[in-house]
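To: structure desk
From: M.T.
Subject: fold request, one chain
Message: Could you run this one when you get a chance? Sequence is below, nothing fancy, just the single chain.
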Amino acid sequence: MTRSLTIYEVAEAAGVSIATVSNTLNRPARVAADTRQRVLAVIDKLGFVPHQIAAHRARTALDRIGVIAPFTSYPSFGVRLEGVLRALGESGREVLVFDHESAARTPSPLLSALPLSGRLDGLIIMGVPVDQDLAERLLQRELSTVLIDSHHPLFTNVIVNDERGGYLAGRHLVDKGIERFLYVSEGQISTDYISQGQRRTAGFMRAIVDAGFPRDAVKRLTASSDPDGGRAAARTLLAKSGPPLGILAHHDLIAAGLVSGLRASGASVPGDFSVVGYDGGPLAETFGLTTVRQPLEQSGFLGAQQLVQHMQDPTQPTQQIFVAVELVEGDTT
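Reply: Done. Structure tokens follow.
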């Protein structure tokens, strides 16, 4: 019978304390990057699995699929998860869901370690940029991995065409006769990756410039990523005067807060302000938002399908799968 490794042996092999090993697995932001990579390399080399997780694994014969995403930061990833679960259906696979903080709101946005979960047979990473060292370790471990709403050249990626979405929103506002433009989002702390917001902003800006406006016709405003953030942004905008303003919100939660705050203060939407959200779904329908609809569930479904195919045939080449967006006009523009 093979003896299980202990955390003490991992610490000794890596030349660190057991606290450092524990933090690497559970609180990686507390560990220096070079130390973290050394510990993770030892864990991968030794095949260390905590005792309680190894025991659970021994009791189950199911393939284990891990799904990592900023679920509590953005409701859209819950919809993508529905697509993942629908694709897996009655396959008998065990799905483990892990929350990850918003990449936009942390100075260390790259996913550099897997959650403390024991052995996985497949992995789906949604909306989180992947550190190069982790990508190479995943390949070395031969762990089938698919990215959704994220990108890395070593893996199959299911990508929403966010630049196209931003362009559609900008073109729509131009066609409505708007001459001043604003992009409202939570902002981005780190420049270590290209975010969805950057791609949307690039498309939005391109549509405005293509219409003959100068780049400085597009302003930016930072707001928290929820309806309260949208209402706070509305108060900021109401304190200023000017011609009608066309707004693209990073997602529908912010857009809903904007519309609510503006209308509650007597501003006309559309009229004084035209607001476009992003995502689509029940919230946009309830508020009558003009929005850029993403195929959220479809992207999760496609990603899970690609993962199962790769698990069945790891030799298949990686793919870049783009899913289209569409502008759905409501009564806010």
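Reply (cont.): The domain at 162-294 is CATH 3.40.50.2300 (Rossmann fold). Let me know if you need anything else for the meeting.
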